[in-house]
Structure formats: C-alpha cells, structure tokens
Amino acid sequence: MKMIITGAAGFIGSNLTKELLKLDYEIVAIDNFSTGSADNLSPVKDHPKLTTITCNVQDHASWGDKAAEGDIIFHLAATVGVKKVFSNSHDTFTNNLDGMTAVLEVAHKKKCKVFFASTSEVYGQSKGVPFAETDPLSAYTTNEGRSAYVISKMANEVSCLNYHNLKGVPVIIARLFNVIGRGQRKEFGMVVPTFIDAALSGNPLTLYGDGLQTRGFCNVKDFLTAVIALIQEPKAWGDVYNIGQNITTTIEELAGYIIKVSNSKSELLYTKLPPERIGKIEIYSRQPNIEKIRALTGWSPIISWQTSVNEILTELHAKSHPVDSI
Prior knowledge:
There is one protein chain. 37% of the residues lie in helices and 17% in strands. It has ten helices and 14 strands. Strands 3-2-1-4-5-6-11 form a seven-stranded parallel beta sheet, sandwiched between helices. A three-stranded mixed beta sheet has the order 12-9-14. Helix 6 runs parallel beside helix 8 and helix 8 packs across helix 10 (305-320). The mean pLDDT is 92.
C-alpha cells in the first residue's frame, strides 16, 4: 500500500510524510512549494521509499498514475494563511475546490481511499462550544475574502461525502484544530511561532482585541497518532472527525507563558483587529469535542500546550542562537 500526500512539504504534510516512512510505507509526496518548503523534507529526501513530485495537485496527470487500488491519498494541500486567503478570495476558492476534485477523481478511477484535512473554521461563530461534528456549520458573510476559504472547505467536505455515498470512494474527513509543533513557521500567521519569534527578538507580542480568545493547541505528534488510529479503523471511513486538543487556553495566557519561559523582556501589545479579522471574521472560541474519535479509536491528545510551546521555543532559539541553549 502506498500513501500519497498532497501538500507534503508543508508543516503537517512533512511531519506526516516522515511518520509514515517510519512505519515503512511507500510515500508519494506532492507539492508545488508555493507555501511548503523543501527544507521540511530534507531529512528524508534520499529515503528509498519516498518519491517527490513537484506539481499542482490539480495537475493529476503528473501524479495520478502513481495511485493504485487500496492506496490512501492524504489531501492536505490548500491555500493557507489568513492574510493570503483574505487578499485573494478567488484563487483561494478555486484552488481548494479544484484540488479536491482532482484528488477525488483519481481516487474514484484508481479505487483509492481519501483522508481529507478540513478545518475547525467550518464551525464559524457557533455558540455550541465545544464544537461537535453534528453541530451546524456556518460561514462569514460572502462579502469578506476569508469566507472563500471556509466555504471551499465546506464544499470539499460535501464532495468527499458525495463521492463516498454515490461512487463508493472511502473517505475520512478530519476537522483540524490548531495543530502546532516543531517545524511550524510564522510566515502564514501561525500564532505560536509568531509570538516566540517576537519574544526572542524582544519585540512586543501583539494581541488582537482583549486577548481572551480561546484555543486548544494540539501537538502535531498527537495529530499523527489520531490519523494513524483513524486510517487503521475500518469503521472510521465515510465519516467526519474532530482532531484537536480539548484543553484550551486564552491567547493572553499563551503570550504570557512564552514571555516567561523565554526569559524575554517583551511586553504585550493590545491592538484592534486587522481587516482580515474584523467583526464576525474572528472566531472567539475554538474548542473541539473529541468524544467521537475517542469512542471509536480510544485516541486522546496527551501532550500539553505548554510542552508544545517549549518544543517550538527550543527549536527556534537554536536557529537564532546556534551556540546557546535554553
């Protein structure tokens, strides 16, 4: 069995690639490197069971012939980053929809399975925290650029379930909640590496609004454990699952912790929301209900957000101070 990973050079994709290679799977890694980095795959670039294809996932003629019956396609490729999504809603929407269609068509033709990485943002501003898979989904006003990302992910979920129910393609839809860990970069607005970089540089840590937004930060190693548990469970196929840390913290507490453990003199800077987060575009609370995946597989996250922060801090500190250590 081969594992085909789209977006394999991204933070999550590269971690998944390395984990599956450890499990002795043959991997086909697909990425156009528009946001992913070759550095993420450098530790395994010469692995005999890894084939890397540089192309857009929509160009299935470049990779589709690698797929065979029983293979699993992990579809992680998508437009990422709040600012990038907000600035070009058309490209975001078409890129996410066309990529999903290409994956499902290959899966249908070659009789593959599909694991789709959706997002917790599909829950929108729902008041039913923690969010459960049966809760209603909602999007921001379609006049706002960021809604293109959310609506495209909702449409991708519908496409996956249609291909499963009507065409017999086995699918798993995972709604991801704030996955963090070693290798995550700040360039796309990810809050933890952004805060750590500011703290190590002695710059203010910028909090939007009152800083009391809540998030559950799931270590990528816990995420990988969940993924493996789901794909190995026959009853998981054809359904939707939350994957995330159900213990939350406020952004303000996160910032304070990072300043403390990095011995930084940085201060907290409270500011108005930027255009891409104004009004209903900011999700104030984001916490997963993980009872569904727990009941099916026994999975629960075991790594605290503090440990995850410490891992990223150690990595980023080593890069900026190669001789020193924390």
